[in-house]
Task: structure prediction
Amino acid sequence: MRAPLARAYSTKGVWELGGSISFGYDKDFETKYEHLSLGLSASAGVFPVRRFLLGLSFGVVHLQTWGPWADSKTSSTELYLLVGPGLVLPIARGLFFFAQAQLGLAWEHSSYTQTLDSLRGVFGAKIGVKLLLGESVLLSIGLEPLFQVGKQKVDTGTSDPFKVDEEQLYLLLALGLSWFR
Result:
């Protein structure tokens, strides 16, 4: 007796579980600061209707920042939780285009001595391609722009920390594997 075939990807009722690694680099030419980020994330999603995905992602990003001065190197770690709808379209047999909007929260801890932990809103997207490997495994390659907005708390040595408006844009290159059923 043969095992039943796996359900077709991006059809109603299919679940997808996976993870990815990401890498990003940018340089602020005005301040001369450079940023290097490495991330890991886990994700889950379900197709309530054909080609339409509802997804959830949890991840961690480590960010190194350095500037033109010897004492300007800092690092920070961010945890984030994102949700959002997505669209998956077949391009060719076993090759899919995907795009997903993301909305959520990020918590950051910085090594900079005067910066306190902060919570920010995150808006983002995922866009790229997925390649079917075997019956139910997908390899994904894509870009993840993430925009964060919030207040950064700076310790002033008093009981009331100073709050600074902060906006950050990351553009990450992501490589992932997922399984669907």
User: Anything to note?
Assistant: Confidence is low (pLDDT under 50) at residues 1-6. The chain is about 0% helix and 75% strand. The radius of gyration is 19 Å. The CA atoms of residues 23 and 38 lie 5 Å apart.
